[in-house]
Structures are given as C-alpha cells and as structure tokens.
Amino acid sequence: MVPGAAGWYCLVLWLPACVAAHGLRIHDYLYFQVLSPGDIRYIFTATPAKDFGGIFHTRYEQIHLVPAEPPEACGELSNGFFIQDQIALVERGGCSFLSKTRVVQEHGGRAVIISDNAVDNDSFYVEMIQDSTQRTVDIPALFLLGRDGYMIRRSLEQHGLPWAIISIPVNVTSIPTFELLQPPWTFW
Question: Which range is the signal sequence, renumbered to this chain (predicted)?
Fold first, then answer.
C-alpha cells in the first residue's frame, strides 16, 4: 500500500522521474476529473493495476463513469448495455480484480475503476495484481480509494443520476498547485 499524498508530491516535484515511457501513465498514479455532478467536481487519484490490463493511449474529454450493477461486477451486469464504450465503476470484493476487469471488458467497457469496499479508506491504495489464472485483459484497470468511490456513488444516488461524466486521464502537471481541486475528505 502506498500513501495517497505521495502521488501529488511526485507529480509536482519530480515530474521527469515520474513520467513513464508508454501511454499517459504518470508514475504509479493516474488522475481523472469528475465534470458532473458538480458537487463532486474534483480531481481524483487512482493507481493502475500492477501486472495486468492496458494503459490509456487516448484522453477522454467527456466519458461516462457508470456504476456497475451489481457493484462487485463478478458476473453478468444488469446495466452492461450502459457500460459499453464507457468506463465502469465497480467495488472491490467477491472476485479477483482481474475477473472484474474481464467482466467489464466483455461488456464493451473502455476501462474499469475499482473502488475499495472499505468506505473509510481515504489514504491507502491497494496494489492490484494478476490472479493465478493467467487470463489477460486489454482495458485499463485502476484502483480508487474507498471514500472516493463511496462519495461518487452517493452523489449519483442523491441526484438520481445513472452515471457521472469524467475526463480521464488528467495531466495535473499543467494545473497550478493552488488550483488542484482535490476531494476535501482526502486532505491530511
């Protein structure tokens, strides 16, 4: 597990050392911004899977972040139609990270964001690794703090919305530090 604040430190102070050679991945963190609903219009930090999944070769200015039904995404999704060509938000638990990613890929998702099922987790990232099956996936898989996933889902429920609109990945190096809109619940 890696403390969340280290990503901001790395990005702001050590950019040349943090930029990876391929894709848009920056160090061990990837950033996305919720554009709608407005009450959670923040830049969120996620970590890519360690040894499976693809990387982002394209920046999506506006794409839907669709909470999977059922949330754990370990089998058939009742809202799989809405995940096609979008990004799925799923919860940790019930099956492996790779299994969840495969389910989303089979439903035509462009990526999956897996939030921790510990809703009080606001600072520690879990390292998502390959399971023992040797299966593969092509779409990116990201891990999101439990508190962040909970707050996104809660906002969608409060507004009666089926999805959020996000921009991913976000290059935070081009944003002045004082303008970084981080979720207020993740400050130390």
Answer: 1-21
Measured between alpha carbons, how far is residue 90 from residues 17, 20, 42, 69, 83 in Å?
A: 31, 26, 19, 8, 11
Residues 6+ away with beta carbon under 8 Å from 108: 80, 83, 84, 85
Output the six-digit token pair for 45.
């930090």
Going by C-alpha positions, the residue among 153, 137, 163, 149 that lies closest to residue 49 is 137
Lookup: tokens for 158? 């409060």
Task: For residue 67, give the 3-state DSSP assignment.
Answer: strand
For 40, half-sphere exposure in the C-beta direction (CA atoms, 13 angstrom radius) is 25
Nearest CA to 71 out of 170, 166, 144 is that of 144
Rounded mean pLDDT for each run of 10 residues along the chain, 188 residues in total: 39 36 56 97 96 94 98 97 98 97 98 96 90 94 97 98 97 82 75
Nearest C-alpha neighbor of 37 from the set 70, 56, 64: 64
